[in-house]
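WARN retry 2 of 3 for item q-0093 after timeout on previous attempt; input resubmitted unchanged.
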Amino acid sequence: MKDLHNNIDIVQAVAPVKVVDDTVPAAKEIDLAGAMSAVIEVSCGAKVAGDTGTITLKVEHADDDGTGSSGTYANVEKKDMLGVTPASGVILTLASKAVAAKTYKFGYVGGKRFIKLTLAEADSNATGTIMGINVIKGHLENRPPIS
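OK item q-0093 returned
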């Protein structure tokens, strides 16, 4: 077997949380410095039929502004993502119907240093859906030593 453990870093963007009416976590900015690849992993619990609203995940990206901070964010486009065609930066939509529990993965190949993940909720999601988001940074420039 090959060593994957020392070749990735996992950043928790959104701790598992119940997304309900008007309750979503704050947008999360992830610094991809030192990583040559990234995957956004989204774990979703079931969305029940009674929740007729929509939950979306939007991804934006930005270059370093020269100070080590992010510059102006812009929506990701098709050329920036693998496994999805974004619409105005939205890479995942749980629409107004029941959705089975599922884990999603989306590759980021946009080449910018920063990405920002924003969950949004609209209309009626009174029961709520449990969601958690991780960013897996790969092909690390400064890997830890293999012990």
